[in-house]
Amino acid sequence: MKDASEKIVFTGTGIVCGAGGTVEDVWEKLEKGETCVGPFEQFDASNWPVQVASEVTLDKRTLVPERKLHKTISRTDMVGIYASERAIENSGILDHREGLGEDEVDAFNDRTGLIVGSGGGSYWSNYDFLPLIHEAKGELDAFGRELGNQVTPMWLLKNLPNNVLCHVGIRAQFKGTNACITNQCSSGIMAVAEAASAIWNGEGDRILASGHDTPFEPEMMYYYNKLGLLSPEAPKPFDSNRSGTVFGEGAAALMLEKGSDAESRGATVLGEFLGFGCCTEATGILDLDPEGDGVERAIRQALDDAGLEPSEVGMICAHGNGTRASDATESIGIKKVFGGDVPPVTGFKWAYGHLIAASGITDVVMTLEALRRKTVPGIGTLESIDSEIGPFPVSKESTEPRSNVALVICRGFGGMNVVLAIRAS
Amino acid sequence: MAAAGKRKIAVTGIGLVTPVGNDAATTWQSLLEGKSGADYIRSFDASGFSTTFGAEVKDFVAEEVVPNPKILKCAAKSHGFALAAAAEAMADAGISPTDEDSHRWGLSVGAGMMSISYEDLKVVHDHASKDGFFDPDGFISPDFPGSPVKFCSWQTNAGLALLAKQFGIRGYATSVHTACASGGQAIGSALKALRRGQCDKILAGGFDSMLNPVGISGFCLLGALSTDNDNPKGASRPFDKTRNGFVLGEGAGFLVLEDWDAAKERGTNIYAELAGDGNSLSCYRITDSPPDGNGPIQAIEQALGDAGISSDEIDYVNAHGTSTQMNDQSECAALKAVFSNRIDDVRVSSTKSSMGHLIAAAGAVEAATCCLAIKESMAPINANYANPDPDCDVNLIVDEPAKLKIRAALSNSLGFGGSNSSLVFRNPEEVDA
Hints:
By secondary structure, chain A is α/β, with parallel strands linked by helices. Chain A contains 17 helices and ten strands. In chain B, strand 5 (129-130) and strand 6 (133-134) form a beta hairpin. Chain B is globular. Chains A and B meet through strand 2, helix 7, helix 8, helix 9 and helix 10 of A and helix 4, strand 6, helix 5, helix 6 and strand 7 of B.
């Protein structure tokens, strides 16, 4: 049962995406209205219908200094480890742990958890088998015989969906409650919701929530484009000329802990987790309910969980992925809850692309920053609001939030809708 | 005495598709007999691999058992298992979401790794590689035969999406993957969601199928599989001194979980109370298990604490027992630490000895096994056990199933990467007493 007297607070954040490797760097881009969607280096897309994404430019050594580890993890794990470790550092909990006695350290570690939202695997990794298929001339018995000569013994380990969970856990010795969520776009944001719930349930005292993904691979871009989901330029959420989304890669993390613990150790409190909603529209893998059913219900659940009235919400960070159907149904769902009194709405995918499994958690980190700076960044690519969406409080320019409370909306395949309610300190 | 203030949760439906049976009753009978599901792999030519056998689901035709076969268009093999097992669990529970309560139904699944079939990878090879080296431009050539429907089936939450649609579940939904602990964690997540009032009923389970050329390759490369190619049926022998690796299986297991009082009120069969969940990270090494059981111990103790019972009430442990040297030794160290001087009173078996290792589905299938054991007052055997290992001297059920009244049962799932999940199930008679 949720102990309403115990506040769950954020004491550290970490981020890495196409817009930079610190919250400040990313904020600067958002505030200036500068999109970080553009050409990328991971593969040669010069003949492709879509040639843009938002790419992390930090090199491997900056992401994960230990070269030894580079051989046993993949790119998505590197960005995940980077963001997770920045959040741990910024929270100051390792310094706090150092001051504890030996017995206390064991108990501390057993009560420190880690919940990660993961993209779940890459297509690149499968291509390690292509030389073998070639060598075996399509014969399976030869494929089996030559396997050990052609593919690294570490192949499976390199591609475990739960690698960030394991490696961050081992490095920080967080031995408490843990999970790796692989629910496509909802993965990262649900890590935050599950972390808060676990602390409220008494399963741990502090939990790092993290999410990571590196989706812009040729195979993903090919199929998303074929499904009509990709735009050839930076996305234009809620714009009449929007034509799809654009991939981004990266990771974000937040340290959540009990407010009373944070206070007693003198930690900087960035903000507070208030509640969440999570539901599916039961529409299958791709389809969306035309009336915004899941968006509406997830918002109402989040408000109810947080004990908030709609009028108390100061701003909304929308999923706003820039596809025709998602933006339209999202605006319908929002209006059903807020009626004619919708608070300022923004969304960040125009700036750093759609990070799929990491998209929601990245938006949580930047929305927290927006609330702290009392600024709702504009949608930099917005030109004219879609008339079918109608009056809707999105703008190209920055505005001011009505309060220090925000909702962050994340939508995903499977008709998933997740909404978080947070407050800045 | 149940844990104070916690909402009590009943298991009211079970559905299984496993290498030893395509439904719960058949699987249960096979487990009692210690029948092996392992055999030479039939679904593809495995003759060149270092391991040529596995525990395949047999004679399973998804179109015949999935209520709405149209949904299989976007389903991978493991999704077919999931839809069938879930349908059995829902029918067993005798309830399903209605227009009035579908938003209060949840879904929690442990899903396997995204795995593309060999055939689909062959398409990439044939069209988007030169001499075996990947060439991205192959995708954009006009003759690339890419199928968006297949792409949909590869999504990490495709199974979740299909299950939600099939049964009209519109509430909380989550999909987890912590390797071999996934199924256990999914059921643990379901318990938590029910306890915090996020939903009133939940379909929870796991599904996986890595018995394909790419899936089995990963384990062959790691050397994790038994290579007893001359004796597939005897290869999975958890806790036996000569054990030499696990046997890869496939399948799905689902439970219907609901509020205890509501289940009582509608007078339905209750298999067990899902009483406690424990969850820890070993923080030791990625594939190695901690020799002293540090990690699994915390998960077991948390689960007992969460259930509000002491280790004295556990009569049966369904062990993770993969049949690898390290895992079995580590798990026994943990069991000895937790049960201490009562260790000889606790009956233990690993049903992986019959079914093989169902990876992301294992924890869910084994949770269902614990519920059936409680209901039938009968614990299945640890098959293929012949040579005692002093490091694994727990009270194993060998030769024949153990007739015993089980007050509470423990199910362990210990995953690659160090995620440990333990679940505690209590006998309904104990709960009502």
